[in-house]
Structures are given as C-alpha cells and as structure tokens.
Amino acid sequence: MADAEQVAKWMAAYLRAWDSNDRDEPGEWEFDWHPLGIDGDLAMIEAETRCRDGRVSSNLWGFRLDAGTACRCFVEWYMPHPSGAEKLARPVRPAPYSGSPGGLRRVAGRPMRRPPSRPSSASGAG
Question: What is the CA radius of gyration of the chain?
Fold first, then answer.
C-alpha cells in the first residue's frame, strides 16, 4: 500500500533519473506536480512540464508502487499544449488532498523525451 510519503520519494527518484539524461543541458525543463490520489498501491499525479524552448505539456501519470517504493507499473498521458498556448497556460494548482506531503513540487531539469512511436497494425477485417 502506497502513501503520500512513498509517492513523493518515488517522484524525487524519478526526477533525479530524468535529470541525469546526458543528452541535455541542466535547467532545460521545469516540472510541477501534485498527487491527485492514492488508492492501495496505485498513485495518480497531475503535472505540467515547461521547456526552455517554450514547449508546455500537461501530464497525467498513474503508477503502482510495491512496499519498497519500486514501481511495478507506469502509465503516462502526455498532452502537448497547442503552439502559442504557452502564454495562455495556467499553472497547475494542487487539488485538495489531505495526504499531500507539501502539495505542489517544482523541479528544474531536462525536457521529457517522447517514447518511440509504435507501428500501427493493419486490420484485415472488412
């Protein structure tokens, strides 16, 4: 069963790993996040990524932690803001959550890498 402290610990480790990406310079991204909820081993966070080059994206992560805070399952929904929307984007605000260890987290680092695209399979039905 995960709790707010375990989620914050896992997020800190994840962001340290993200920041260790050798392809980018330090300070190329900022990442604000807060927990939406925790149910058993499942945690959900809402976040916003802002890159130095002006790109902004909203993020929704779901992940399952074991008792030692190792991640057993991770799913990310990545939603880039339309071009020009960066100036209109509102900052992420923490939702009311009594278990939040300090609410919104801000971390500076490197930009998120999009996963490689998967080839689509053609359907033979017709």
Answer: 16
> How long a stretch of residues is the chain?
126
Tell me, yes or no, whether 118 lies in a domain: no
Let me know if residue 123 belongs to a domain: no
Question: Rounded distance, CA 30 to CA 56, Å?
Answer: 10
Least confident of 1-15, 17-31, 95-109: 95-109
First to last CA, the chain: 46
Residue 18, in any domain of the structure: yes
Contact 49, 28 (CB under 8 A): no
Note whether residue 115 is domain-resident.
Answer: no
Residue 99: pLDDT band with limits 50, 70, 90: very low
Measured in degrees and rounded to the nearest 5, phi and psi for residue 59 equal -135, 145
pTM above 0.85, yes or no: no
